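RECORD CONTENTS
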Amino acid sequence: MNTTLHEFTNEDYTKTRNLDANAELDPDLLHEYLSSIEKINDLKKLKDKITELKNSLNNFVLDGEPNGIKVSKSTFTKELEQLEETLTLQRLSHYINIIKKGFEKQKNGKINDINFNRWKEYENIMTDSLWYWPKRNHPVG
């Protein structure tokens, strides 16, 4: 499989855009690209494609209004870094599928509007907050 980023992006158009870390990325385009590269059965080649994607995120900046699923450049960059550090092809494929699932649909809770499939986008929520609390006392008997 010889998928290139140029097939998915318009590099000339995005060179002139304001591309800060909080730029919104196009989830449909990212989903399409990840779907095309996940078929690669070589860990090194797949990681090379992930690195290529990470270095070319400016080409995936959303053109227009978001479709409801928020994908910030800074958060997605962190997700790609996690993919780059993965040690097995099976785990890498698993992480790619999780990311793609987050692009496919919103999964909201019953009492809030948090998209559980894209929970990393919520920087103001401490997802590791349980570690800040001392251990609860358990009554004996």
Q: What stands out?
A: DSSP finds five helices and no strands in the chain. Confidence is low (pLDDT under 50) at residues 12-18. The chain has one domain: 5-132. Residues 5-132 form one domain.
